[in-house]
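Q: What would this chain look like folded?
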Amino acid sequence: MTNSVAPMTEGVIWKRMVMFALPIFIGNLFQQMYNTVDSLIVGNYLGSSALAAVSSSGNLIFMLIGFLTGIATGAGVIISRLYGAKDDLQLEKAVHTTVALGIVSGILMTLVGVLFSHQILIWMKTPDTVMNDSIAYLQMYFWGSLGFVMYNILVGILQAIGDSKHPLYYLIASSLINLVLDIIFIRYFNMGVAGAALATVISQFVSAILCFILLLRSKENYRIIINKIRFDKKQLIDIVRIGFPSGVQNSIIGFANVIVQSNINTFGEMAMAGYGAYTKIEGFGFLPITSFTLALTTFVGQNLGARQYERTKKGANFGIIATLISAEIIGALIFIFAPSLITAFDSSPEVISFGVDKARSCTLFYFLLAYSHALAAILRGAGKATIPMLVMMICWCVIRVAFLTVTISLTHNILMVYIVYPLTWFLSSLCFFFYYNKSNWNH
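A: My prediction, written as structure tokens:
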């Protein structure tokens, strides 16, 4: 059988990984751009309070959606290994089980997000001045949960078999749609922050539908056949076994960030707006990390499925180096240009000050963040997702929350919120370094 996508078990290692990672990088760049456009339009047309409302919702969204994207990662690992092993029967079952899981999860996420977003915002100590906008944004966002979940599920299938180009095309299309709808809904229809959320929801549904049509029309062994969309017990167990730790890991990180956001909220809406503006800029720093970590997980999964152990190790080492170097370059650029970048979102001196202080406390340490994510991706591709979950649960949740609980209560200094990130990145990198070099992870 001839496949339309060349497997990562063949060819020059660095070329295969770069050619896989490059479309993901460009696609994530467009996605980050349209996420940033939301904040730029909100900040410039609706003001600092609206920007604070949108920004404070980001960590909560990641906490809830992150679990399901972790499950999608587990599905991608299973699919990549079956694809590398050329096991067509089990691959078909894994693909259809993954789609069925996405549909059910998207519906459940809609119910949870819409019903409980108000109460969660109260727990996050969201100021009354931005509460109504935060509720409007979140509830509109969660009405589109099915689109977000299915997009991540379907893109995960495509990337697992080595196709990173089609997701790029669909992201470009959705980014342009989001930009146009943002302007229409906010500037001309006066829909406020709910309009920004609705624009994102519609654009995400468009991407999900395009991915679904592609897989529906495919003639390859990973195609979707509608009447075969159902759960296969064995594949579901395997997907959950690998995906559950990744999902828990994402939710743990999201939960810790919600705690961080709760502490930011106590410093007022100017701090929320400045911190939120930085997080949009930080998203660009994550681009090489996300791109190479996805390439690493797919590369490791396919090559271990094909029992090419030495090739797996060489690819892993190249991916780590590439991730560290690219992330640190972007971090240095953000450090230098932070004042101008924050000003693009909000020209208020207080907002700029908060945003710049946050940027300059973290960006030069992006290599630590990159190292932790790269090794976590390698271990997930090897089917050892529990290790990253435990490391990040301890370092990025328990220690991060404990540090903030003690230091903020003693000092009430926002600098403590800023430095907790590089501190916990260092600790997780140390743990991953010892495990990676001492364990027999690739067999």
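The radius of gyration is 21 Å.
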